[in-house]
Design brief:
- The chain is α/β, with parallel strands linked by helices and about 300 residues long.
- The chain has one domain: P-loop containing nucleotide triphosphate hydrolases (Rossmann fold, 3-Layer(aba) Sandwich).
- Helices cover about 45% and strands about 15% of the residues.
- The protein contains 13 helices and 9 strands.
- A hairpin with a 2-residue loop joins strand 2 and strand 3.
- The protein binds adenosine-3'-5'-diphosphate (A3P).
- Adenosine-3'-5'-diphosphate (A3P) binds next to helix 2, helix 5 and helix 11.
Length: about 300
């Protein structure tokens, strides 16, 4: 069964999570977690479902927008994806196709039919320094945030794994294992940093993976619609129904707090030299078994 857990330190930093089997989850995760995971496991999957998996703040909304434009053939912004984590299965099952379903959980928590090859899974990863900065700003912006405290306190919780969905490192290593061992062909892995470098190539790669065929002009249109600056402009004037409740719980800014800077290397504006050295030490230890190298700038 799930418990709520509040972790605090002597400097007044505090984080509130739901815990299930020792792992922290966001407090808006459905119900007691266990029942929802059971229901998700049996959820009916459709061939044209797209599941976007990520550790928080790695570009989930970005990929979801691209996937939606590629699945529907219309380059309209659809708003946030529907998260498996925060929505009842009954609701998810009634959504029209093509569904873009996101989650911050790992592959083993997806519906059984996905793990047997139905639907498509796009995993996106981002270097953990920028992901940490992004999550900190997000939590500072929302009312009734589950974290209260300083950037330094946040970073310690982040590195200790006292963070929603556990540590970035455990999550990434789990995905790396899945990508190496999973025999199906319905999963792809993208990097936020690669998308920033060459978005058209990433859009083309996603289209190929989703088995949708368009001429280059449409792929370019999707690319242009999904640059950071265009998305921000669009979203400012067009809050979608599924985001209106979310907007109400955040500040008065009509821009979803999801969209902040959209850059690689913003961590340099936040990390002190000491924090960076400490982070690098932990990174080297935790990632020693990984063959993967992230780019931080
Ligand atoms: P920053 O806070 O660094 O700006 P998620 O969707 O997983 O919550 O990730 C949010 C992060 O992705 C935010 O990072 C957000 O600005 C960034 N992002 C969203 N759309 C983007 C885009 N089109 N281009 C680049 N970054 C984008």
């Amino acid at each position: 069964m799930c418990d709520y857990l509040e972790v605090s330190d002597s400097e007044g930093n505090c984080i509130r999570t739901k815990r299930y089997q020792g792992k922290p989850y966001v407090d808006i995760f459905v119900g007691n977690i266990e029942d929802h995971l059971d229901r998700l496991s049996c959820m009916e999957v459709r061939e044209d479902d797209t599941f976007v998996l990520s550790y928080p703040k790695s570009g989930t909304h970005w990929i979801s927008s691209i996937a939606s434009m590629l699945r529907t053939g219309t380059s309209d912004y659809i708003g946030s994806p529907h998260f498996l984590d925060y929505n009842e299965v009954d609701f998810l099952e009634k959504l029209p196709s093509p569904r873009i379903l996101a989650s911050h959980m790992t592959f083993d928590r997806l519906p059984r039919q996905v793990r047997e090859g139905k639907g498509k899974v796009v995993v996106v990863s981002r270097n953990p320094k920028d992901a940490a900065v992004s999550l900190y700003h997000f939590l500072m912006k929302i009312n009734q945030s589950a974290f209260k405290g300083s950037w330094d306190g946040f970073l310690k919780f982040y590195l200790d794994g006292n963070m929603f969905y556990g540590s970035w490192f455990d999550t990434f290593l789990d995905w790396e294992r899945t990508l190496q061992t999973y025999k199906g062909d319905n999963i792809m892995h993208l990097l936020y940093e690669d998308m920033k470098q060459d978005l058209l190539s990433s859009v083309t790669e996603i289209a190929t993976f989703l088995s949708v065929t368009y001429d280059v002009s449409y792929l370019k249109e999707v690319t242009n619609k999904c640059t950071f600056s265009t998305m921000v402009k669009t979203i400012r004037g067009d809050v979608k129904p599924q985001d209106q409740g979310f907007i109400k719980v955040v500040s008065n800014d009509p821009l979803l707090p999801i969209y902040r800077k959209g850059e690689v290397g913003d961590w340099k504006n936040h990390f002190t030299v000491t924090q960076n050295e400490y982070f690098d030490k932990i990174y080297a230890e935790k990632m020693k078994s990984s063959t993967f190298r992230f780019r931080f700038e």
